[in-house]
Amino acid sequence: MSAFTIFLILIVIVAFLLVAVIMVQNPKGGGLSSSFGGGGTQQLGGVKKTGDFLDKSTWFLATVLIVLILASNLTLDMGNGAESKALDANEAVDTPSTMPASL
């Protein structure tokens, strides 16, 4: 298993977790943070603390995702430097020596 494959698996896992954390949040103050307590004074962990946790975890996962993507780019096999597979110097391109007559 190559390093690029490992990075790819990690990127997929982090992206899935990031989507899950974002889907739990509600932009209007609802979501998971408002479901605790139901408007009462006793809340499990507090609404503010749950919102802060979701906000921090979103930023953390987004940062990890970007770092993994940049690190995976370093593991790509670039071949033999400036050589291109599309323009191989060993293969001759067939070009006609004369132009065909116009119709």
Keywords:
3 helices; mainly alpha; 103 residues
Describe the 3D structure.
The chain has helices at 3-24, 32-35, 47-74. The chain is mostly helical. Helix 1 (3-24) runs antiparallel to helix 3.
Q: Label the structural class.
A: mainly alpha
pLDDT averaged residue by residue: 74
Query: End-to-end span in angstroms?
Result: 58 Å
Q: How much helical structure, as a percent, in the residues?
A: 40-55%
Main beta-sheet annotation: none
Order of SSEs: HHH
Write down the oligomeric state: single chain
Number of helices: 3
Radius of gyration over C-alpha positions, nearest whole angstrom: 27 Å
Stretches with pLDDT under 50, minimum 5 residues = 40-45
Count of distinct strands: 0
Strand content: under 5%
- Backbone shape: elongated
Briefly summarize what is shown.
It contains three helices and no strands. It has 103 residues and is mainly alpha-helical.
Could you give the topology of this structure?
Blueprint: H1 3-24, H2 32-35, H3 47-74
